[in-house]
Design brief:
The complex is a heterodimer of chains A (115) and B (108).
Chain A (H helix, E strand, L loop, with lengths): L4 E3 L2 E4 L5 E6 L6 E7 L6 E7 L2 E5 L6 E5 L5 E5 L8 E8 L1 E2 L2 E2 L3 E2 L3 E5 L1
Parallel strand pairs in A: 2-13
Antiparallel strand pairs in A: 1-3, 3-8, 4-5, 4-9, 5-6, 7-8, 9-12, 9-13, 10-11
Chain B lengths: L3 E4 L2 E5 L4 E7 L5 E7 L5 E8 L4 E4 L2 E6 L4 E6 L8 E7 L5 E2 L3 E6 L1
Parallel strand pairs in B: 2-11
Antiparallel strand pairs in B: 1-3, 3-8, 4-5, 4-9, 6-7, 7-8, 9-10, 9-11
Classes of the chains: A mainly beta (115), B mainly beta (108).
Chain lengths: 115, 108
């Protein structure tokens, strides 16, 4: 167990809808990253939040957005869902100190199905 | 696009045998990490090897790194049924770049 939790575990939505996924970081961690993993593929970096600010973004459109809260928990929001958004969404927390980024620890993921 | 490549894509061996998975990458690295994923769930961090290290051990795991060839390998010795999983290498610090993974099946 990494101490990183995600909710919900599974979700079914239809095209055009909006979805919010949640992540609770491991205690003491100040950085949260989100990844999308399509079936049979490796995870792809969506974005990272550090101290409530976006701190790097992958090749994902603006309809993917996020938030980090003062307790370092985080949300991933996806608007105007498309069929290709069906995937496992993984959250990872880590500690950044003095510019050094330590190992990322992953939660169990949220499986999203868009119909 | 994913910039790491694991080889083979799938590997099936008998329990007790050793399993070797390889990872190649294209750009220079500060470190490389290996993760395990069971049944499409969360990733478990296995080991991190820094660019100035050539080999690292953790229990039944042995990781090697050859920066001149831009490649790494993960060896699992004396495999067990519980080792059945997908294994990924990842490079990067802020943004982890994963390969497509090796799907390992351990047959009893």
């Amino acid at each position: 167990e990494t101490g990183v939790t995600q909710s919900p575990t599974h979700l079914i939505k239809t095209r055009g809808q909006q979805v919010t996924l949640r992540c609770s970081s491991q205690s003491g961690h100040n950085t949260v990253s989100w990844y999308q993993q399509a079936l049979g593929q490796g995870p792809q970096f969506i974005f990272q939040y550090y101290r409530e600010e976006e701190n790097g973004r992958g090749n994902f459109p603006p309809r993917f957005s996020g938030l980090q809260f003062p307790n370092y928990s985080s949300e991933l929001n996806v608007n105007a869902l498309e069929l290709d958004d069906s995937a496992l969404y993984l959250c990872a927390s880590s500690l950044e100190r003095g510019g050094y980024k330590e190992t990322q620890y992953f939660g169990p993921g949220t499986r999203l199905l868009v119909l | 696009s994913q910039q790491g490549e694991e080889d083979p894509q799938a590997l099936s061996i008998q329990e007790g045998e050793n399993a070797t998975m390889n990872c190649s990458y294209k750009t220079s690295i500060n470190n490389l990490q290996w993760y395990r994923q069971n049944s499409g769930r969360g990733l478990v961090h296995l080991i991190l090897i820094r660019s100035n290290e050539r080999e690292k051990h953790s229990g039944r795991l042995r990781v090697t790194l050859d920066t001149s060839k831009k490649s790494s390998s993960l060896l699992i010795t004396a495999s067990r049924a519980a080792d059945t999983a997908s294994y990924f290498c990842a490079r990067g610090a802020q943004k982890l770049v994963f390969g497509q993974g090796t799907r390992l099946t351990i047959n009893p």
